[in-house]
Amino acid sequence: MKRVNNLRWSLFFLAAIMLGFISACVDEEESENRTAQLSWDLSSIPDGDLSASSGSLNLDVHWAYTQWIIKVEEVIEGEDFVQEFTPRVAGSNTIGSSTTRVAIRYRQNDTYSDNVVKISLQASDGTGEKFEMILTQAGKEFVPFRINLDQNVTYQHISGFGGGNMMWGTDFLDANEIKLAFGTGPGELGLSIYRVRLSPVRNDWPAVVETVKEAKKHGATIIASPWSPPVSMKSINNLVGGYLLEENYEAYANYLNDFVQFMAEQGAAVDVVSIQNEPDIQVSYESCDWTVGQIYDFVKFHGDKIQGAKLTAAESFNFKQSYTDQILNDPDALKNLDIVSGHIYGSGLAPYPLAEQKGVEVWMTEYLMNQNSGVDINNWNTEEAVIWEETMGMLQTIHDSMISNWNAYIWWYIRRFYSFLGEGEQGTTRGQTLRRGDAMAQFAKHVRPGYTRISASLSEPRNIDVTGYTGEGKLVIVLINKEAESIPAIELEIPEGFDTVHATVTSLNQRQNSVDVTTQGGVASLGLSAKSITTIVLE
């Protein structure tokens, strides 16, 4: 019996061994047939563009014995609009023929441009064939809006746009730089006002003659600003600080007049002379303090001694209207004042109704934006995008000056790395214009002295500033697009009597570039670049 049991156990073990052998053979055969497979079915993908609204779509991924990933491989145009893939990663190395449905959710397109992406499907380890498809989402529908002009509604006349000479030293703008700044040819900036320093030292006067003469060749208006009277006339024997002694008011008026007469004799006539640069701020450089009452007394009792040039006051640091209100309200004092002026550091950019009521021009005679590099030149960021963003801020102040009915806008130095012409610092090249200069040219080159601002608006609210001007038989429209995307089309009905329409644009990537303008049925149409300034001229 024992012998029989042993035999049974022997047969059992032998059967087990045979089954194991057979199973191993089967597993080996199956393993040899576990070929990775991967493909997708795109029949559910629309042939045309997806709509601009958000939505979802499905596709089937067929696979076997592989792990895989589906993803946005590349953004070809616009933005990545795919919100999520569900699932994004799936599959298995141990599971045979299977199908997984992938849901693709996408977000709304809030721009007018198409979004185009490349989607890929591939094994997770990067082996095997990569499947790709292009998915396009249309931009949102755009309905063109219009510029509305009314030439019968007029505002201030324009005296010009300008900038300053180097105020100290003698390295003033040369003939080539003057031409770049004040010329109106291709690539030039078209400035029309040149601000120079009226030195408190007579022996310095001849140094500024040649640069002024060059500017006058291009029709520039010259404004001369003193930073301090001669020290002999002040309360302290120093060019910095102190005040003009009252007993020297007449002598100082004669001093200003002497400068005007000297420049005229040299063929470099000054058109406007100021009493004092920034009388209301204490600084560590050449300066002089004036109270409101002192400015009033000087203008009323001594302003008439300055002959051959218009007189302006008070060039306040942040355009305090109180500095000239008393003069404007006194007919005797007002007879001696032609222009009220100021700067807009920190504040002061606002309409001046009293000056308008009295028929006195309002000039903004100095402003600068330099990323605080005046404190430390290394604060200047040379990235064009950063510079352009600040330049858009400069353009905003010009626009605000215009809609405040101001007659002139004058920047600080014309030649400086943060200004209109390079001087060799911070990556600039002397003798070359800068993009910020081209931005200013969109106003200065086309809105000329003597033009008049007219009513201009848009047919719908947009983050776009618009002003219109007329002069010399032309209509000029300046548009500052502050929106982060381009505008496909803006329309303008061409008024009777105008035959041609042309436009230029300056932006992060353009510098006084021509803009394509189409006309049909008496309507002109053109696009606006993102964050740009565009000037349209009708003749």
UniProtKB/TrEMBL annotation:
Residues 1-26 form the signal peptide. Transmembrane segments: none annotated. The keyword Signal applies. The keyword Hydrolase applies. It comes from the Bacteria. SUPFAM superfamilies: (Trans)glycosidases (SSF51445). Keywords: Hydrolase, Signal. Belongs to the glycosyl hydrolase 30 family. This is O-Glycosyl hydrolase. It comes from Belliella marina.
